[in-house]
Amino acid sequence: MNAVTEPWQWDEATWRGHVERVRAGRRLAPPWPGGAKVAVALSFDSDHETIPLREGETRPGKLAQGEYGSRVAAPRILAALEKYGVPASFFMPAVSALLHPDEARSYVAAGHEIAAHGWIHERNMLLEPADERVLAARALDTLEEITGVRPVGVRTPSWDFSDTTLQITAELGLIYDSSLMADDDCYELLSHGRPTGIVELPVEWIRDDAPYFMMERYGSLRPYTPPRDVLQLWCDEFDGARAEGGMFQLTMHPHIIGHRARMVVLTELLAYMSACDDVWFATHAQIAEHVRTELSGPATPTG
Questions:
Q1: Among 93, 100, 119, 125, which residue's CB has the most CB atoms within a 10 Å radius?
Q2: Where are the alpha helices (DSSP H) in the chain?
Q3: Hey, which residues does 252 pair with through a beta bridge?
Q4: Taking a C-beta distance cutoff of 8 angstroms, is the pair 186, 200 a contact?
Q5: Distance of CA 5 to the CA centre of its chain
Q6: What's the mean pLDDT in 187-193?
């Protein structure tokens, strides 16, 4: 049996192999439609009850928090998006869709995107590759059966991207992922230096509601940041993306952002961005399709 080596004992082939498994390729930032200066990609991870369920937590208290996301928050979010005429992408675990099929269908009926987000919000890095593959395929089939639309993109639960996630994403024929953080703007994913044709719409904890508003009753996690401070941060992120001609991507969760005091953040952000006449509001799928046109052209610098 080979002795376990520490990272500082790895040879170059070993550490370089880990780094090159999934890497950022060319940046994909072509001119936006209609002469827009910025593309805005709003997303909501409709996790609901799957967060406690994936931990084996079945007590009513925890499950009720998730139920709030579907029962109260999702309708509020849909109403706000309708008011400003803004499309969004809803990443939904298949178990959430099975628990709330009318909600899943309502996203599609309102012109929004439904996208994959795992089976029961499982942690991919704890799964065997075969199990990850089966759950990913089952999730796509389930969302299609419920909504009539087969997702074209995925966000891994908890942004948990395993060594085999990219391969599985390609095998399933998906055109984009939204789980990684190598850029502010879209880029092509590379596998061991080889282009995959899969677009990455990068996420970031700065542009996610969970770090600011999460609460754990028996832990040290507390929502210390006032909602209006988060609004200012996100407005600054949007302004920066607009100044650079890039993309502003935002990740939210109905059970988190959908409370009254936090909906102020979403509604005021929508009003702020909608006041600009040079914004392209689009789903993640629409942006991925748009930037893919650049993959057939000459390469551009990656940074």
A1: 93
A2: 12-20, 50-54, 60-68, 74-84, 94-99, 101-109, 129-147, 165-171, 210-213, 227-244, 254-257, 260-274, 284-291
A3: 44
A4: yes
A5: 35
A6: 96
Residue labelled with tokens 């502003």? 248
Q: Are the C-beta atoms of 176 and 288 separated by less than 8 Å? A: yes
Q: Is the dihedral of CA 200, 262, 232, 87 positive or negative?
A: positive
Angstrom distance (rounded) from CA 100 to CA 81: 20
Average pLDDT over residues 220-230: 88
Half-sphere exposure at residue 4, Cβ-oriented, CA atoms within 13 angstroms = 1
User: How many residues in the chain?
Assistant: 303
Quick check: 260 pLDDT over 80?
yes
- Mapped onto helix, strand or coil, the DSSP state of residue 20 is helix
Task: Give whole-number Cα distances, 22 to 18, 179, 299, in Å.
Answer: 8, 12, 18
Minimum mean pLDDT range among 3-12, 107-116, 127-136:
3-12
Which residue stretches of 21-73 are H helix?
Answer: 50-54, 60-68
| pTM listed for this prediction | 0.94
DSSP-derived pairing of the beta strands 113-116 and 247-252: unpaired
- How many whole angstroms separate alpha carbon 33 and alpha carbon 24? 24
> Nearest-CA neighbor of 30 among 256, 296, 275?
296
C-alpha 88/C-alpha 41 separation (Å) is 7
Token pair recorded at residue 82: 């309708």
